[in-house]
Amino acid sequence: MSTPAGHAASWLPLITRYYDACTRADVDELMEVLHPDVVHWFLAPNVGSRAVRGNEHLARYWRKVAGMIEAVWVVDSIVESGEHAVIEWTMFWHPADAPSGTRVATRGSEWFDLLDGRIHEIRSYYQQQPFSTELDGFPYAERGYSTVEQPASALHHPPAPDVDPGRGPLGL
Length: 172
Fold this sequence. Notes:
This protein is an alpha+beta fold. The chain contains 3 helices and 6 strands.
């Protein structure tokens, strides 16, 4: 992790709090970490690649996603400077057409802009496929990154998803 000189607080606790709330589909917690005017940009041509604006809309978006695919997000690395942070993350999830119990890993990076101590903008870079995607030959485990066998990193141990199957496919 890189923390610039003179930068008193790391953004890691805020960002892991955000991802833990996404994993738990916790709308209230998401509302606390997201700036009211947050914008989350997604890389096209992913499903749902249109930008999501506003903390309530984004919080409900992640509740829906978490319920549909039982996603668990892990922060694997972070570089920060002032009001910006860039992370590498892994999302472990269940593709709809995969055999029961199949979990895949989607690797990605995100740029965060922060305002008033909250997440104000997220620019997300990844391609979500129904199979694991990662850098060919990269030593993930050796560098402390999460793996399918160990869905936690040296930086972040996420909670188990808070998915109630009785509430339906959207977690509603």
